Description:
Helix content is 41%, strand content 15%. By secondary structure, the protein is of the alpha/beta class. It has a 7-stranded parallel beta sheet, with helices on both faces.
Amino acid sequence: MTAIEGATVLVTGGGRGIGKMLVEELYGRGAGKVYATARDPRTVTHPGAVPLALEVTDPASVTAAAEQAQDVTILINNAGASVRASYLGSPMEEVRRDVETNFYGPLLVTRAFVPIIERNGGGHILNVHSALSWLADGTPYGASKAALWSQTNSLRLELQPRGIAVTGLHMVYVDTDMTAGLDAPKADPRDVAVAALDGIEAGAHEVLADDTTRWVKSQLSADLEALYPQLNK
């Protein structure tokens, strides 16, 4: 279990959406300091947060952020992107963008902050995944989240002996700017943030933040037709 009260936390993508709610909930639980990162730190509006410029795909930007946040004990890799690219019809640079942001980005940040967290006596990392880690939606976004899920599982094993716990957070579409153009049921970002922090405090390996996500994971051992009924046609 990891205590949030008094902890120093860094939230990537902390200026909006789930990240913004995470910052608010962290302070509500007594976090001592919260670094909220964004490409443009002026978008961070919480009065108590420490705004920090960060582009997760840029190694120099990650290094600079780590140099400014040497007291972190909890890292939340929340920043992500979805360009709604098509495997067959979109330029390859659009396909790569999802993977660069959602897989390599968290890895760059984690590699920079693991030594810091370890030096500060250990702590916690939470990676934000998706129900689409397990359910293909026809875009590279899901593939990037599936790859991040695998990364998280490996890091959990590697970091446990070093005093760093790792939690993976999965949820369906959330009502944020990223999903504004989607006509689908969406979770409340505050509910997701609450579930995520509950998971950190409980020491959970995974947090499945809603019923749909729990159902999707439960079907992974079933035949493919359970997740993709269109295959029955």
